[in-house]
Amino acid sequence: MAKTVKSSVNIRSKTGYSVLVIGAAGFVRTHISAALKRLRFRPAIVWASSSSVRKRPNRSTPPASLYAATKKAGEEISHKYNHIFGLSLTGLSFFMVYGSWGRPDMAHFFFTKDILKGKPVPIFESSNHGIVARDFTYIDDIVKGCLGALDTAEKSTGSGGKKKGAAQFRIFNLGNTMPVPVSDLASILEKLKVKAKW
């Protein structure tokens, strides 16, 4: 097994390297894998964090869910590997990704199902009693951001467990800067010619 893993990171051609995409059957990673197959990018560590980590009022506020806590832990562990071992690392936080091959548990899919069945659409209030808003981000924009992170990644400064200097450590939010009320999504889906109940 060790030989297989080692050989998988060897240069396969003069134009590129093999890239390991963990969980490549997932929504976002399926699109990234397809793009990588076409483009062949240099080796780097880029991992997916979450917008759930970014939604806290400040860094001292604990994450609100187990999912967000695991993503926050991933950021902390990555930072330690960067600092101690000189690994060049980039974390990317995705914000409400939508598009082809999307996950069926995403809002636009279950909203559509509820509207077509005549069921009420579950729209929640935010902590300040307003309607929840989200940064909806199209999958192709996420893929461009991921490939851009690979393309601009610097080499690690560590080797064999020894750090030779400061290494690149970056975290980016991949989303737009104008949150859209979730009720607007329901209104757009009403163009199916069925009135949504709320």
Q: What is the strand arrangement across the widest sheet? A: 3-4-10
Strand content: 15-25%
3D shape: elongated
Mind telling me the C-alpha Rg? Answer: 20 Å
Q: Which spans of ≥5 residues are poorly predicted at pLDDT below 50? A: none
Could you estimate the helical fraction of the residues in percent? Answer: 25-40%
> What is the CA-CA span between the terminal residues?
54 Å
Give the tally of β-strands.
11
The major beta sheet can be summarized as: 3 strands, parallel
What class would the helix/strand composition place it in? Answer: alpha/beta
**Secondary-structure element series:** HEEHEHHEEHEEHEEEEH
Task: Give an overview of the whole structure.
This protein is an alpha/beta fold and 198 residues long. The chain has helices spanning 2-8, 27-39, 51-54, 66-85, 107-117, 139-151, 182-189; strands at residues 11-13, 16-17, 45-48, 89-94, 97-98, 133-134, 137-138, 158-159, 162-163, 169-174, 180-181. The strands form five sheets. It has a three-stranded parallel sheet with strand order 3-4-10, sandwiched between helices. A hairpin with a 2-residue loop joins strand 8 and strand 9 (162-163). The N and C termini lie far apart (54 Å). The mean pLDDT is 81.
